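Pilot study result, target chain (481 residues):
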Amino acid sequence: MTLASPRRVSSIAFAIGGLASFFIFASLLLLTHPIGSSVSGYFYGTETTQHVEFHHSSDDIGTSDSNPSLDSSSDSPPLTRDREDPNESTDARLGEETKSGRSTNISMDEEEATQDSVETECDLYHGNWFYDPMGPSYTNNSCPLLTQMQNCQGNGRPDKGYENWRWKPSQCDLPRFDAKKFLELMKGKTLAFIGDSVARNQMESMMCLLWQVETPVNRGNRKMQRWYFRSSSVMIARMWSSWLVHQFNEPFGFAPQGVTKLKLDQPDERIIEALPKFDVVVLSSGHWFAKQSVYILNDEIVGGQLWWPDKSKQENVNNVEAFGISVETILKAIAKHPNYKGLTILRTWSPDHYEGGAWNTGGSCTGKVEPLSPGKLVKNGFTEIMHEKQATGFQRAVADDKLGNRSKKLKLMDITEAFGYRHDGHPGPYRSPDPKKITKRGPDGQPPPQDCLHWCMPGPVDTWNEMVLEIIRRDMEGGRS
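Predicted structure:
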């Protein structure tokens, strides 16, 4: 046996010692900077490892459980025909826009970075309208389920530019509606639109968007419209509910037979009965509160609209206040329902654009061919107060301690301000295909009969369903935006 020389032994020992030192150093490095620690930095469009700040907009009152500001005022959204650079990545734009946006940066610990915190980093409801040459996802000829009054092109409207304006939130992108993505997310589930004729307008928009990838089966009846998509077992339903609360016509107190009575503290029982069949509900209401009705709270008549015969009695609740109460009532009832665990989206007040009068007193939206420009939005006092009362009703519902975590399944889709700029999106005088219809003002300047409340299809209303898809995606994918 040959023994190694002392010099050779010392060299081996030195090598072993160096290797051990390297492993110790590497272990410490991995503990302090684990692999993937810079992922968050790259995700937010930066190339440096940094603490991620979550951005919360005080205007985004639909995604927080706290009590955000109800002030709906904001800078006028800019109007531009410039399209975004298709070569710029979405993540990069998100990183840049969240830095320069109007939201306030709030630094949070990891324990506080909840789903809702992530969700609020992009406010969907403040941004601008931009002209998209690609045009809409469907045409009036490619969708058979389209109420004729909203078929503006089929009714002879001469311009088409109103179909091309798309909504771009300030802090991120709102993707074009992806029908296949929607059916994938909603596989085996049912989405229900509940409300008045504007809710029907939105439901038909959703159906037109989905119809482009699959023809559904009609499974509806007199009580409820229902359309079934076989490939994904998705059901789209619609229920009519003018006020979302209990209504009846029988005599009550000093209110006679025939006048509609509303129990503002009781939800529409038809909605409550149907809820277990639904997984996502989109609620909307408000415009029927301009119609004659009697308001009842705690089994006592407290007010009325276009009805209050006994002037000696004090009227405590007007139609605007009644609207806010009804919103709170239906949301609490849905959130407390023992057999409904789904997502509830409250779409805010849809603004009308009657100028010079109401729908029956010469109001008009004739000749509007593109969105209003920045600074040109005329404040509508009724729209503002109805939106405020609706938002207040929503906030009171989510603040109810009895709801607990269930309040997180209530979302406010705040479209009112953005759609105040879309006076071009209504049918106006193009409400029917009658070739003899009057579409221009008469010699005395009197405008023709027209609809400045509902929305042309295709048109701005399709944006609502892009927002619905984004809200559903955030909810089902854990709030990632």
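One observation from the pilot: The first helix runs from residue 6 to 32. A full batch analysis is planned for the follow-on phase.
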